[in-house]
Amino acid sequence: MKIDLHIHTTYSDGMLSPEQIVDTALGCGLDVIALTDHDNVLSHDVAGKYVANKNLNLEIIPGVEINTIYKGFEVHILGYFMDKNNSDFINMLQFQQKARIEQTRQIIDLLAKKQGIRIKFEDVQKLVAPSGSIGRPHIARAITNSGGTANVMEAYAKFINNNSDVYVERKTVSPHDAVEVISEAGGIPVFAHPIDVDIADELTCELVSYGLRGIEAYHRKHSPAAVEHFSTLAEQYGLIVTGGSDFHAPSMNHGTILMGKNFVPDWIYDKLIREKKRIDLA
């Protein structure tokens, strides 16, 4: 069995639609994927209908990635199998979406006032699927499309960072809240790509008491040593080890498809399913 538990679509900062993701996953020989867009779950139904209508042999696990900021660190919390109709879960997504819109509008205003770069909110909004999660990649692309920079990397370097005079940090829920809400919604909360967080070990200990059930040890950013470290940390706290490619787009180098390339053992899927069954019976 070939699995990838971390994939993004055009409903957040991915470059492929849910239907294209399904076709690409099948082309890569995947059996199971999780759609984990940032702060929304809109791709699930689209992909699910596409699979059903075409009678395709691909299992799609409902997922999400909640973006939080804690002590100056970007902390991302993955969730799997949560009840999407849970009121607290819905409220959390609505809060995150509102914060994304507010951040975008504030940056657009500052770009015009301080840099003379004039883009409209609609210029950013059109770069994401309807009602999807707008964010920094879309702002950077809109700046480039307007001629404000030569490319997206330059837009990030000049404007989309904490040292820029036009950048506004987004308001977010805390990672603790994200874990708790996903857990209360019957889902499995997982600490995503912990290598990005210098305080990952201490934060894992904190989040366990809020309901954390897993750590994403297998990730394209993780060296073999990092995989071993976070797998050991998971064992220490009785957590599930998960993993995925964190796929956003084909590589710019020769059009390489990176989906499913990150090694994720079969037993991860089995443990995830067993955990969901345990939660449902609790």
Structure description:
This protein is an alpha/beta fold and 282 residues long. It has a domain at 3-82 and 189-281: Metal-dependent hydrolases (TIM Barrel), CATH 3.20.20. Helices cover 43% and strands 16% of the residues. The chain has helices at 18-27, 43-54, 87-115, 121-125, 136-145, 152-158, 175-184, 200-208, 224-237, 266-281; strands at 3-7, 32-35, 59-70, 73-80, 188-191, 214-219, 240-244. A 7-stranded mixed sheet has the order 1-2-3-4-5-6-7. Strand 1, helix 1 (18-27) and strand 2 (32-35) form a beta-alpha-beta unit. Helix 1 (18-27) crosses helix 2 (43-54) and helix 5 (136-145) crosses helix 6. The protein is globular and about 55 Å long. The two termini are 28 Å apart.
Round the mean pLDDT to the nearest integer and report it: 94
Radius of gyration: 19 Å
Order of helices and strands: EHEHEEHHHHHEHEHEH
Q: Structural class of the secondary elements? A: alpha/beta
- Which topology of one domain does CATH recognise? TIM Barrel
Count helical runs.
10
Classify the beta-strand content into a percent band.
Answer: 15-25%
CATH homologous superfamily caption of one domain:
Metal-dependent hydrolases
- CATH C-level name of one domain: Alpha Beta
By DSSP, the count of extended strands is: 7
Spatial sequence of strands, sheet with the most strands: 1-2-3-4-5-6-7
Low-confidence parts: none
Main beta sheet: strand number and arrangement?
Answer: 7 strands, mixed
CATH second-level architecture of one domain:
Alpha-Beta Barrel
- Calculate the terminal CA-CA distance, rounded to whole Å: 28 Å
Shape summary: globular
Percent helix range? 40-55%
